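Minutes, project check-in
Item: structure for the 327-residue chain
Input as provided by the requester:
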Amino acid sequence: MPRRGRPTAELVLAQDERETLVRWVRRPNSAQALALRASIVLAEGATNTAVAQQLRIRPQTVGKWPARFVTDRLAGLSDEARPGRPRTVSDTDVEQVLTATLEQAPPDGGTHWSTRMMAARSGLTQTAVSRIWRAFELKPHKVNYWKLSTDPHFVDKLYDVVGLYLDPPERALVLCVDEKSQVQALDRSAPVLPMMPADPERQTHTYIRHGTTSLFAALDMATGQVYSCLQRQHRAIEFRKFLNQLHREVPADHEVHLILDNYATHKTPEIKRWLMRHPRFHLHFTPTSSSWLNMVERFFAELTTRMLRRGRRSSRSRSGRTRSRPC
């Protein structure tokens, strides 16, 4: 039966072309569009309808790429130049901006580049520099801090703490314990101006300080309950009082596992004697310089953001809507 439709040029693949097309199809990091076009060309001899059904695309798409391949071979499978305004920033300009940003110091001796200084150095506009930095996620004005723990038993302590979080013992409470010291009772020296449309809440920069207090807190990892009390100081004697409070409030038939940092007041002889008298309490210390392992720190961060940072306190005993009693 004679073939219908407009005549098409015969598609014949050379061996090296076939190997290249197969490599494009099988390579994991090939562009999806390029792999699809290579699959269409590799299906030489099959009808457009059969190839379209197999690849789940339109028959018109199947007919386009073999014709492009016959004319331009492998180069015909790449995208053609798009219409519109040509690029004004070349790849060389981008490379120079990236190299200067990452490897060179600013000419004024500063610590980091600004878009204006980079624009003056590269000859590009400030907007172009900003776009390049955004495209490569470069933020010279920002810095992140990190610290390595020097604890020789870091791995063992890490496994111990994380193991308590993931698989706590039966009939036991896992409490994250810490002290938030030097909590200041601050009041503003003038009334606070409330938030209005187009204006945020406004406070005076000057304040009246009504003293400080220390918050002892233990976060129950299973329920989110927080055991807390307030003390004037955070010495070993205050920590022992907080342990006595936990001993009274936690059911007597439960073991208690405390996750806490390496603060000196947690390891004094007085605390060790208390632990010997109360064998159901077990202490688990986080590695040195690894307070991020203690989940009560997240509670303290939320407390600071929601209650303390913008709050007004006329005395140490007033803490807004939440109150913590003395131990």
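Outcome recorded: The longest helix spans residues 59-72.
No further action items on this chain.
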